[in-house]
Amino acid sequence: MKCMECGAEVTSARETFNYKASGLPVTLVNVEVRRCKACGEYEVVIPRMEELHTTIAHVVIDKKARLAPAEIRFLRTHLGWSGTDFAKHIGVAAATVSRWENGHEPMGPQADRLLRLMVLTKEPVSDYSLDRLVGVDAEAKPATIKLAASKNGWKAPALALA
User: Fold this and answer.
1) SS3 category, 118
2) Which of 20, 35, 130, 150 could be stapled to 42 by a disulfide with Cβ–Cβ 3.0 to 4.6 Å?
């Protein structure tokens, strides 16, 4: 293999590499690193990047302690949202998300749990869109729910809420 910078020969070895995932420090063990001895350039081969980021997200949400600013930022970007989009989904101002991610204000326990739940449910669930959370009213109103019994269980008509 040739170096993309200087054209010299590149060597390859398995190493431990410190990776930054949206500012979150992650140590990758036994990854291929290609190095050029002539100019010092290197390239890290990270296979299945999407799977790696999903694994990182699940490790983060499994921890017992509250989410740290870098973890909040990583999880938000993992979900594919801008700060403004995330704020709309979680029901806070964009400035609040910025304060959480910059460490100026801790994320509350309810928002912390909601973010973890979003990470768990965004990809696998296909019949419930998280976009529904954007339209949730601030005012609490009791719902009248209509369901019909059938041989196969309970069914909700198209307009189940009145």
Assistant:
1) helix
2) 35
Query: Which tokens belong to 64?
Result: 């017992």
Q: For residue 153, count other CB atoms closer than 10 A to its CB.
A: 7
What is the dihedral angle through the alpha carbons of 97, 136, 62, 19, rounded to the nearest 10 degrees? Answer: -40
At residue 46, the pLDDT reads 87
Cα Rg of the chain, angstroms: 22
Using CB atoms within 10 A of its CB, is residue 2 exposed (0-12), middle (13-18) or buried (19+)?
A: exposed
Domains, the chain: 1-46 (no CATH), 48-132 (1.10.260.40)
Q: Is 0.85 surpassed by the pTM of this model?
A: no
> For 125-139, what is each residue's pLDDT tens digit?
333 355 655 666 666
CA–CA distance, 140 with 132 (Å, rounded to integer)? 16
- CA 146-110-65 angle, 5° bins: 140
User: CA-to-CA distance for 117 and 130, rounded, in angstroms?
Assistant: 11
